[in-house]
Automatic annotation (TrEMBL):
This is EFHD2 protein. The gene is Efhd2. It comes from Loxia curvirostra. GO terms for molecular function: calcium ion binding. PROSITE patterns: EF_HAND_2. Keywords: Calcium, Coiled coil, Metal-binding, Repeat. Gene3D superfamilies: EF-hand (1.10.238.10). It comes from the Eukaryota. Residues 133-171 form a coiled coil. InterPro entries: AIF-1_EF_pair, EF-hand-dom_pair, EF_hand_dom, EFHD1/2. Residues 28-63, 64-99 form the EF-hand domain.
Amino acid sequence: RAVGEGSPGGSGRRVFSPAGEFREFSRRQLRDMERLFRQYDAGKDGFIDLMELKLMMEKLGAPQTHLGLKNMIKEVDEDLDSKLSFREFLLIFRKAAAGELQEDSGLHALARLSEIDVSTEGVKGAKNFFEAKAQAINEASRFEEEIKAEQEEKKKQAEELKQRKAAFKELQSTFTQ
């Protein structure tokens, strides 16, 4: 279950899949956004409320007025609960990449200052059927490449750890003789 979505009691809400719904972002970008979301979700309830958003904007160097913060939430608050779920948080970055945020809005500042560069991927909009088909193929292979790269990185880290342990044991044996 993703951050801030679904319910433990199974009350009928569908589980939110960021990679499925926000395909314009790479897996790495989604992880970075989730990390940022969790960092500022001080209550660890899966939501960023008004005070948490206030703190976030202050730490990012773009403090907002109380009204400005309320307007930021209102712009992406689909369920009208006056707080941001992870899905609504991702909508900020989707709108930023699509150029749908006003330059002087708090959400634009949040997207710009959060160190997650959505403009590198951008929001992909196919102009015609053939472009859409090619895009789907490329997207699938891009995710496969990212997964392979992550697996290779994990293997490399495991091998380095193994080598460090062996070197330590060798060094340790010189002292225990």
